[in-house]
Amino acid sequence: MERSVRDHVPSLTALLTVASLALVFGAVLGAIPETVLPRASDGVLDAIPHVNAAVSTVAIATILLGVRAIRRGNVRRHRALMVASVGLFGAFLVLYLYRIVVRGTAEFPGPEAVYQYVYLPTLAVHILLAIVCIPLVYYVLLLAVTRPVSEIYETRHRTVGRVAASLWLISFFLGNVVYALLYAVY
Fold it and tell me: What are the transmembrane regions (predicted)?
């Protein structure tokens, strides 16, 4: 199985990306019925954005620490931190999509000018980078899990990983800006 995955990293990256984006857009556009999920209490639903902001902040830290680890040559620590980053992103996404399916998207409560000139552009860049990151993260993850460390250096893992980590960091940071605008500032 690992050999099969190893030989088809680009194809599997594309497949996982399409499936992930279909799930995200299905949730955001209301294609996933609320009735297929158990209903959490309003307290739990209200807590999800705050939990996700914390998860995003921890993910920023794990990505930065993972980059630092690999720059110092500590492959084992790098791997652990980047796997933790992927796990945090997965937890964030599950909670976010659950809340979207059950409750819908949050409306911006602030002034129209801030909505148009700050909130929407920040949200748009955050979403765009999150979408762009999906195939990049899958690609480097699949390269990493299907090869011994000695062979990873012969792949595009390092090059794509640098781009993925940079865009992922910006996306997580902008997500926290969106959170602050929705739940702290206004």
Answer: 12-32, 47-67, 79-98, 118-142, 163-185
146-176 pLDDT, tens per residue? 999 999 999 999 999 999 999 999 999 999 9
List C-alpha distances in Å: 1 to 40, 101, 138, 146, 158.
38, 34, 17, 10, 24
One CATH from 3.90.930, 3.40.50, 1.20.120, 1.10.10 for 2-185 = 1.20.120
Backbone angles phi, psi at 8, to 5 degrees: -130, 35
Q: How far apart are the first and last CA of the chain?
A: 51
CA distances from 136 to 17, 70, 85, 182 (A): 9, 18, 14, 28
Q: How many residues does the chain have?
A: 186
Quickly state the pLDDT bin for 4 (edges 50, 70, 90): confident
What residue segments make up the domains of the chain, in order of their start?
Answer: 2-185
Q: Computed over its alpha carbons, how large is the radius of gyration of the chain?
A: 18
